[in-house]
Amino acid sequence: MSSFYDIIGQQTAIDFLQGAIREGKVSHAYIFDGPALSGKRTLAGIFAKTLLCEEGGVNPCGHCHSCLMAESGNHPDIITVTHEKPTTLSVGEIRQQLVADIGIKPYTGRRKVYIVPDASLMNSQAQNALLKTLEEPPSYAVIILLTDNEMKLLPTLRSRSVTLKLRPVSEKLIEDYLKKNTDSDERQIKIAAAFAGGVPGKAKAVIADESFDSLKSEVLRAAANADRFSMSEINEAVKKASEYKDRINDYLDMLMIFMRDVLLTKAAGDDAKLVFAGEEPLLQRKSEEMSYEKINRIIEEINTVRNRISSNVNFDMSMELLFLTMKGNRENG
User: Fold this and answer.
1) Cβ density class 142-160: b for 16+ within 10 Å, e for less
2) For residue 291, is it left (φ>0), alpha (ψ between -120 and 50) or beta?
3) Reduced to 3 DSSP states, what percent helix, strand and coil does the chain have, rounded to the nearest 5?
4) pTM (predicted TM-score)
5) Which strand (E) or helix (H) includes residue 78?
6) What DSSP line would sit under 133-187, residue for residue?
7) Distance in angstroms between the alpha carbons of the first and the last residue of the chain
8) How does pLDDT run across 69-86, given as a tens digit for each residue?
9) Which of these, 83, 78, 81, lies nearest to 48 by C-alpha position?
10) Contact at 8 Å (CB) between 28 and 51?
């Protein structure tokens, strides 16, 4: 990614940042709030690159010495704060990498930019240390906090920052991007874009994930046969699902997309715009076998299972209940 033009969607955030640069009203602190892989880090990097570009425009020129250093990841005035523990960004790390460094003037340009990728992992001590810096920041400093949940930050920290929320990107934009930037076929692109839930990085990860096809195959197998499962087959399906335990949300997302395709097939027939193009015979069969009530019941149960698992309810029991709901009573739909 080399400029704002390369970002998928997020035009509202881009317009705001470019307007601030154009009008000379760049804030000392920003919060970029959005889900993982939504492009927060890319947006922060391009914003930092633009602020330090020697041509001084609202988009980085890409060829000045500052832009070339930023592109290579070696710009001395763009500092990315890191942390050793996966679940905590400590006060020591904030003090050492940001608070102690921010008093040193920029090495090459007029600004110094700090990017904090996992800001929501800061403990209260770390946030308070940062807050003191934000009370009287140097004129050249810009701090960008990246978070998947801004409410984990102290209200006083949020009040001293400009918050930009990264919105879900349309499937069409994601599909267009994947068509231009990958060698994947149209069917793969359509599934990846739907599966991404408006998060471009997730779509790219799906395309690059060699195990994605095996996940899809297992979900389709379970979805196709669950209404015919015996109890031993339900136990086997739970065992198979447990192989994807560390990515169970992906499994459930895939199943949700399939059930929505079944619903669309039932409602719109041949006019349905399906994600699982190529699986029309299976979708048609399932739409004929199930009532609207049962389809909606399964969709509700998928969401319930997701909440149970995130609340640490027993995994096997949660998945067993899902498969029992999918089995249901075939005669009554």
Assistant:
1) bbbbbbbebeebeeebbeb
2) beta
3) 60, 10, 35
4) 0.77
5) strand 78-80
6) HHHS--TTEEEEEEES-GGGS-HHHHHTSEEEEPPPPPHHHHHHHHHHH----HH
7) 50
8) 999 999 999 999 999 998
9) 78
10) no
Which one, of 279, 281, 328, 278, lies nearest residue 300 by Cα? 328
What is the spatial distance between Cα 295 and Cα 85, in angstroms, rounded to a whole number?
43
For residue 73, is it left (φ>0), alpha (ψ between -120 and 50) or beta? left
Nearest-5° Cα angle at 88, 87 to 90: 170
The model's pLDDT over 255-312, given as tens digits with 9 standing for 90+, comes to: 999 999 999 998 887 666 788 878 889 999 999 999 999 999 999 999 999 999 989 8
Using the structure block, give the residue that is written with the tokens 């046969």.
Answer: 225
Is it the case that residue 332 has pLDDT exceeding 60?
no
